[in-house]
Amino acid sequence: MRKWDKIVYYSRKLLLFLSSILILSAVVFFVSRLAPGDPLVSYYGERAEKMSLKEREQAEKRLGLHKPLTVQYMQWLRDAFRGSFGISYKYKMDVTEVIAGRIGNTLLLGGTGFLLIFVLALLLGVSCAWKEDSLADRLICKAGTVASCIPEFWLSLVLILIFAAGLKWLPSSGAYDTGGTGSPGERIRHLILPVAVTVISHLWYYACLVRNMLLQEVRADYVLFAKSKGLGKRYIMFRHCLRNAAPAYLSMMALAVPHILGGTYIIETVFSYPGIGTLSYESARYQDYNLLMLLCILTGIVVIFCNMAAQMINERIDPRIQNVFEK
Question: Could you report the per-residue pLDDT of 275-297, keeping only the tens digit for each?
């Protein structure tokens, strides 16, 4: 790819990325404001229900809710380009400060879960492909299929019932003990159950994909040729099959980020874990428009970026894919 072609290629990707975010912001803005609910309740609490008509009009004017939706959106968009996303109705502070206090928890939970899934799926997939059709392979396939079909919220409740309410070994909610110091030991104890649910819910799906990719490679003609040359099974599996499947696995894991992120949001809500997922639920429930907008934009950026990264990896692997998208 020549230098000018690279500039055009990445410019198109950037334009597609920005236009996708713009469309997402418009959809979230209008859908959230047309949904039933009263944002004044989020800001004023129970006082909003006792307001007179004049007081309500003044309150809406103060929050900028009295203008037409298109005018509100254009004003929000103008402020967003300046780096101002408004205040949270519920927390009475800048939405960036609210998110900054929670995003670290989500990155810790989601990042730990993703790394474990990334490593364990590869190890489990290779092990199952190595021992294809053995008793261990069949048992793992069946157990993994059952585990991947269990809803995350139901599995979370079961683990809370057993390990928190029953055995009292682990905490059932929060990111650290109430009144605690937030030490690494506390954080780890509070992460065990949410991370376990994240891994159990997603592990076999990706391990099964690794297994199938490796078995497809094992049955390729070049493996038969390698065997005829006297190369051992271990050498063929790790030096040829796994090496050929690695780019597809990296692309697959790039697509896995939004999948695992969505599951993390659900798990945070069940475990009352103070992260972005719980914050998203609260912002939607209380019509906290400014906070909801920024959360959706950040989530959208991650999802769109990961999908585009996976597409670019696939285009590097197989240039024919790029030609299809260009047509």
Answer: 888 898 888 888 888 999 999 99
pTM: 0.83
Alpha carbons 294 and 299: distance in angstroms, whole number: 9
Q: Are 198 and 115 in contact (CB under 8 A)?
A: no
For the stretch 12-59, pLDDT in tens is: 888 999 999 999 999 999 988 888 878 888 888 878 878 888 888 888
For residues 207-233, average pLDDT: 85
Helix axis angle, 152-159 to 242-270, nearest 10°: 70
| CB contact set of 127 (below 8 Å; sequence gap of 6+) | 136, 140
For residues 85 and 79, what is the distance between their CA atoms, to the nearest angstrom?
6
pLDDT digits (tens, 9 = 90+) for 165-194: 888 888 888 887 776 666 888 888 999 999
Question: Reduced to 3 states, what is the DSSP secondary structure of residue 87?
Answer: strand
Q: What contacts 322, CB < 8 A, 6 or more positions away?
A: 315
Dump the DSSP string for 282-307: HHHHTT-HHHHHHHHHHHHHHHHHHH
Dist CA 314 CA 318 (whole Å): 6
| Alpha-carbon gap, residue 304 to 311, rounded angstroms | 11
Contacts of 155 (CB under 8 A, 6+ apart): 197, 200, 201
| Measured distance CA(206)–CA(124) in Å, rounded | 9
Q: Give CA–CA dist 117/124, Å, rounded.
A: 10
The C-alpha atoms of residue 86 and residue 50 are separated, in whole angstroms, by 26
Average pLDDT over residues 233-257: 82
What is the distance between the alpha carbons of residues 98 and 211, in angstroms, rounded to a whole number? 42
